[in-house]
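Dear V.,

Thank you for sending over the compound details. I've combined the ligand you provided, pyridoxal-5'-phosphate, with the protein sequence from our construct and run the structure prediction for the complex. I'm sharing the raw inputs here so there's no ambiguity about protonation or stereochemistry in the SMILES, which I know was a concern on your side last time.
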Amino acid sequence: MSIKPIFEKGAPGRKAYSLPDIDVPEVEINKLIPSQFLNDGFINLPEVSEVELIRHFTRLSQLNFGVDMGFYPLGSCTMKYNPKVNEEAAKLSGLMNSHPLQSENLSQGALKLMYELEAFLKEIGGLDSVSLQPAAGAHGELAGMLVVRAYHEANGNPRKKVLIPDSAHGTNPASAALAGYDIVVIKSSKDGLVDIDELKRAVDTDCAAVMLTNPNTIGLFEKDIFFISKVIHDAGALLYMDGANLNALLDITRPGDMGFDIVHFNLHKTFSTPHGGGGPGSGPIGVVEKLSPFIPVPIIEKGGDKYYLDYNRPHSIGSIHGFYGNFGVLVRAYTYIRRLGAKGLKEVSRNAILNANYIKKRLEGIYYLPNQGMCMHECVFSAKFQKAKGVHAWDISKRLQDYGFHPPTVNFPLIVDEAIMIEPTETEARETLDKFCDAMIAIAKEVETDPEIVKNAPHTRVVKRLDEAQAVKKPNLRWQKNLSNTIKNP
Ligand SMILES: *Cc1c(COP(=O)(O)O)cnc(C)c1O
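Below is the predicted structure of the protein with pyridoxal-5'-phosphate bound, written out as structure tokens.
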């Protein structure tokens, strides 16, 4: 099977439209548009019929993999199923067709929705104020770090450094550096948690904040969080939580109760809005009372029966995005929370944890487990056993595509050699988890008997191994005569 580019389909003169005859006088094009803006007549557009067009693009869409196509256990990314009712809500004409420059009087419904979403996130996070503005997790981190700076500056000294464990997501040090801080890396202990002695050594009066992910990126709960919080607060520093892993905590515990001062939420992960294609996201931040004056403007307030945007916050770090963020994502997250309620959210987290532990147990011994015991919403294996046969985590993830699964995250977190990080999420049935585990076990057997088949995977995809960095940064979207020869199914 080869997938022909649309340019190689159809025939001259074929078209996918039919228009009525023109009923106004025809005018020469060069009487309307100056000649230097006209091309020489040949523009090389595909000439295809409607059915060819539809088949071509439907076909292409099926080459893609999405949550609606199958199991997508990409660790740290929370690729849960996104309920379609969210889309129905986002499509309501009063929401979809509203405009950010519409008057407050005509925007009361949208403002109410955002006001209530802020309230839900405060409740879920155990925090006092929320800004919905940041457009992604990393953007929330930056906003949070700017709040850290503003807070310390208001106390007379912005301080110099931010401490971050070596297991952290790469966006954490990047965000702190963008906010002008030096990064100090805290080594993890051998059981995969923050090394308390290392932390104590690094915390001093130059320390502005500590950024933690809890549960951390290995899927383990930082059980000494109260002690960590005390050490940090005693030094006058702030405790920031990367809340991208909140899927493990909903209505079980709250960042605010653990002593965190700032948290970002990934609405597009935990609260089920489509993500993964680089489309709009949402990374609101929540903070404790003493940091409330500094969060981005506007926040949504209520006076009497009326909702309004509050820009009058003199200590705010300002705006970090147009208006109040990505409204469509906010509508989806709001719908998701309203539909599940507190009881449903708790079940989300309990099932997410159960599913991860189920996989952990079934694959134990077949793949090396760097950390024993219970995990939270994701489990991390290492392809250490397989590496001895010359097969890498990377190869195993590619081979999983032949079995019909999206690969898990590999080579992250960096502290685990040959990491394979699996986050099943709560939306998967036991049969799916079993099929996935069966595939992982079958691949481990192949590594023993026929490692080449794993090393050369995938075998069933149209494209095989792309250059992971360049394929995104320099996509080749131009038609080339021989393109159909380069994308062939082997
Ligand atoms: C996804 C993720 C982020 C970044 O979120 P984006 O919305 O992709 O910017 C940060 N930290 C962790 C732990 C994550 O999983």
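A first observation: The longest helix spans residues 327-363.

Warm regards,
I. M.
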